[in-house]
Amino acid sequence: TAGKPINCKAAVCWGAGEPLKIEEVTVAPPKAHEVRIHILHTGICHTDEYTRSGKDPEGIFPVILGHEGGGIVESVGEGVTNVAPGDHVIPLYTAECRQCKFCKSGKTNLCGSVRATQGKGQMPDGTVRFKVGDKEIFHFMGTSTFSQYTVVADVSVVKITDAAPLDKACLLGCGITTAWGAVSKLQPGIRGSTVAVFGCGCIGLGCIETARLVGASRIIAVDTNPNKESWAKKFGATDFVNPTQLKEGKTIVQELIDLTDGGLDYTFDATGNVNVMRSALEASHKGWGVCTIIGVAPAGAEISTRPFQLVTGRTWRGSAFGGVKGRTELPQLVDDYLNAKIKVDEYVTHHRTLKEINEGFGDMHTGECIRCVVDM
Ligand code: AHE
Ligand code: ZN
């Protein structure tokens, strides 16, 4: 098939707020420095729903969503040296070119090489590889994993070991890695510290697990769903607080400050709710507390707090993909999974076929779902 278009099935979102529709799509062959991947499994993440719903200011339609995939390289374009046909790979929505100002800074994982076209739903040359009939379909996050075949830039893909089951390893393409990095890479001082994690979905549980792994002394999970208590404890939380069940008039911030003699050393927002982000900052300890924002907030939403919160030594920060450089760091994380150093299987609560992908989005909205994996 190399060099020829491939016809396959994909879930297409034709417009903001519409359900996905399974279509026969034509996937053009990879151009220079592009890779065509046979996607075998993909997770569904809240960011896919965020863009589908029309809330993403960068949302563009019609589009093939999906950014948490695993697959096998089918063919490569001219000049591709980092992967070859047959390689097991994970597409990367945070590229790593190793040549741009960002990559060379040593300070961030935010590669600039393909970001402009990726945000416009295009390949780096400004065109697209997907068509339904004559109608061009946009790419999403540089990955578009809700298609049986997709094309990505070579800087946006990493080879992993064949030994890793792709129906699990795909989750390292977004949620678990994002949480792992935000906790273990970005907060080197976390050992022995107190931690609060707001939100016990995939990201929150990943933060809890990683905090335990790196030796946090106390890990307080915060969620409004009482069913999340057992999940949080299974992943390593020492305490669980439900903000809707506090004593009359007591705020979650006050509750956490009381529980911890003044506040947490580290807090993490894994909700995307800007009110929660404020609580997370204000529940961190005077003088040294660090609050990390991971969740994606709705378009136009803004965070606020009294500047005094920062003047008195709290830090508000954020990270994308956990600060992880995908090509350099993901293979090791996959090995850590295979060596049982990090959980992955435990996050998969639901499986769906491609035909059932809209039901998979429905699963995500129930408090019972941590991750739904779509078998393509
Ligand atoms: N396009 C949205 C923002 C979406 C967003 O924040 N995306 C995260 C990844 S979410 C993974 O589930 C991210 O890493 N963004 C960095 C980037 O460069 O896109 C908006 O509000 O415009
Ligand atoms: Zn995601």
From TrEMBL:
Keywords: Metal-binding, NAD, Oxidoreductase, Zinc. One of its GO terms (molecular function) is alcohol dehydrogenase (NAD+) activity. Belongs to the zinc-containing alcohol dehydrogenase family. Class-III subfamily. It comes from Sistotremastrum niveocremeum HHB9708. It comes from the Eukaryota. Its EC number is 1.1.1.284. InterPro entries: ADH-like_C, ADH-like_N, ADH_3, ADH_Zn_CS, GroES-like_sf, NAD(P)-bd_dom_sf. Residues 203-335 form the Alcohol dehydrogenase-like C-terminal domain. It catalyses: S-nitrosoglutathione + NADH + H(+) = S-(hydroxysulfenamide)glutathione + NAD(+); S-(hydroxymethyl)glutathione + NAD(+) = S-formylglutathione + NADH + H(+); S-(hydroxymethyl)glutathione + NADP(+) = S-formylglutathione + NADPH + H(+); a primary alcohol + NAD(+) = an aldehyde + NADH + H(+). GO terms for cellular component: cytosol. Residues 32-161 form the Alcohol dehydrogenase-like N-terminal domain. It holds the Pfam family ADH_zinc_N. It is an enzyme of class 1 (oxidoreductase). Its cofactor is Zn(2+). This is S-(hydroxymethyl)glutathione dehydrogenase. One of its GO terms (biological process) is formaldehyde catabolic process.
